[in-house]
Amino acid sequence: MQRASTLRSDWYRAAHDLFDRYDAFVLPTAQCWPFPIDWDWPKQIGGVQMDTYHRWMEIVIPVSLIGLPCVAVPMAGARPMGLQIAGRRGDDLGVLQLGEAWHKATS
Predict the structure, then answer these.
(1) H helices then E strands: how many in the chain?
(2) Which Gene3D superfamilies match (predicted)?
(3) Are strands 82-87 and 70-74 parallel, antiparallel or unpaired?
């Protein structure tokens, strides 16, 4: 439990420092492209075994874990994928404005 708390605190400090230089950061909403409908989940991504259904989309955990505001938007392009736009803690409005700007720029 202590190790998890330390890791979370380290991630929080790193994100806080990131926002000294940037207004937001953008990550994918999953670690892989959409997979065939008959798969329960991708069993391997980049040589790493996915032991449960949730592993293939765990990229969303760090942002939620430290309570950052975040919005998911569609990625522009031929393949269906989403992007998550995360902002400084408490800047919910700024994140929503970035999401709206992205929507207008890519629609």
Answers:
(1) 3, 5
(2) Amidase signature (AS) domain (3.90.1300.10)
(3) antiparallel
Instruction: Tell me the sheet residues that pair with 71.
Output: 85
For 70, phi then psi, to 5°, come to -150, 145
pLDDT in tens, 55-100: 888 888 889 889 999 999 998 777 788 999 999 999 999 999 999 9
Instruction: Evaluate whether 71 touches 83 at the Cβ level (below 8 Å).
Output: no
Q: Are 74 and 28 in contact (CB under 8 A)?
A: no
User: Which tokens sit at 70?
Assistant: 């975040």
Residue bearing tokens 């970035």: 98
Q: Strand 70-74 to strand 48-49: parallel, antiparallel, or no bridges (unpaired)?
A: unpaired
**What does the pLDDT read at residue 79?**
75
Instruction: Please measure the distance between the N-terminal and C-terminal CA atoms of the chain and give it in whole angstroms.
Output: 45
Measured between alpha carbons, how far is 107 from 87 in angstroms, rounded to an integer?
22
